[in-house]
Write a structure and sequence with these properties.
Largest sheet: 3 strands, antiparallel
CATH architecture of the largest domain: Orthogonal Bundle
Distance between the termini: 21 Å
Number of helices: 9
CATH topology of the largest domain: Helix Hairpins
Shape: globular
Bound molecules: manganese (II) ion
Helix content: 40-55%
Length: 229
């Protein structure tokens, strides 16, 4: 099971030699500062809740597209040697919209793939359930509030479970916005851009959200993301 720190490390590997070498100018057009981590399962693994066709486009075209654009935008700039998280925070602060949007979407999607599991969903394991109940009272209240946030996000965006101190909170973000730019600590996410569900559910976002909660949530990943203390 990959936790958040491990996959972020994996995401940073592609750029680490630049940070060590400090010679971004030798980056040729074909070499990439950032790379996409492999999907943590096969493209068919989430079917029938999310089809191979959706995953193929979503990972292979959308996620890859954000990555390619990001590499284009940072090549030869002061951001070329930074970690992905550092790029996100710096671009957010300086309101460098194009770099922020692409960097955040690369990060958000990797976090999303890890928030899903072929055998996920349903009742949370006891250890995580305790934290959910401590924050929302009952599991059903968590589900209801998460669903309302997902349906209430007007247009494109994301719904997140984040940790704030001892408690979990549900937040939604528009377009590429990400909680890590605001110093929050994400635990789970659901992509509610139409490209995430339209081929399988058309306009029925509620059915996609229900499938996520009932069949796909990666509770182990969520548990691994909790700050220990
Ligand atoms: Mn997406």
């Amino acid at each position: 099971m990959q936790n958040r720190r491990e996959f972020l490390t994996a995401m940073a590997v592609g750029s680490s030699w630049l940070a060590v070498g400090g010679w971004p100018s030798i980056l040729s057009a074909t070499e990439k500062a950032f790379t996409l981590p492999k999907l943590p399962y096969s493209e068919e693994a989430l079917s029938p809740y999310i089809s191979a066709k959706t995953i193929s486009f979503h990972y292979g075209k959308h996620h890859q597209g954000y990555l390619d654009k990001l590499n284009e935008l940072v090549a030869g700039t002061d951001k070329a040697g930074l970690s992905l998280e550092q790029v996100i925070v710096a671009a957010h602060e300086k309101q460098e919209t194009a770099i922020f949007n692409n960097a955040a979407q690369v990060w958000n999607h990797t976090f999303y793939w890890n928030s899903l599991h072929p055998k996920g969903g349903g009742q949370s394991p006891a250890e995580f359930l305790e934290v959910l109940e401590g924050s929302f009272g009952e599991f059903e209240v968590f589900k209801k509030e998460f669903t309302q946030a997902a349906l209430g996000q007007f247009g494109s965006g994301w719904v997140w479970l984040v940790q704030v101190g001892e408690k979990l909170q549900i937040v939604k973000t528009g377009n590429a916005e990400t909680p890590i730019a605001q110093g929050m600590s994400p635990v789970l996410t659901l992509d509610v851009w139409e490209h995430a569900y339209y081929l399988d559910y058309q306009n029925r976002r509620a059915d996609y959200v229900a499938a996520f909660l009932d069949k796909l949530v990666n509770w182990e990943f969520a548990l691994g993301n909790l700050a220990k203390g």
